[in-house]
Amino acid sequence: MTDPALSPRTAALTITAYGDPAPQGSKRHVGGGRLIESSKRLPSWRTAVKAATDAAVARRIMDDGAPGLPLDGPVVAEITVTVARPKSAPKTRVTWPQTRSSGDLDKLVRGILDALDQGGAIADDSRVVELTARKVYPHEGIDALGQPGVVVHLWPLPAAEVAL
Length: 164
Description:
By secondary structure, the chain is an alpha+beta fold.
């Protein structure tokens, strides 16, 4: 994390979604002015993240009325994407997912941020002004899940005080 004062215990919202993380990459033109995602897995992945976001927002509403949701000012996001470990990866030591099959981290994050927006966690993904993202294998690293999915922590950034 970028700031020790920001931790999962104090996050305004934490979202955990399970599924096969899919990158939101380039779109393909199919004629008639229509564009489709090049990743066939993206719609189901985005649906899983949106559903988990909906559930996290609903829990906040039940707990405290969800004041401040969706987050509509500057937002800090920490995202940990857990991807499936390939059979060829070493079993006895920690390794990092850096193959093409694990997806580009920036493209994985793009789809996740869009789903957070659609699920009502943030007013718009453009509100994210600070982002920490990592890609890990199951049980290896900060916020790694036991199976493929994502953990997202969101914090509103306090308003900057203007020095006179």
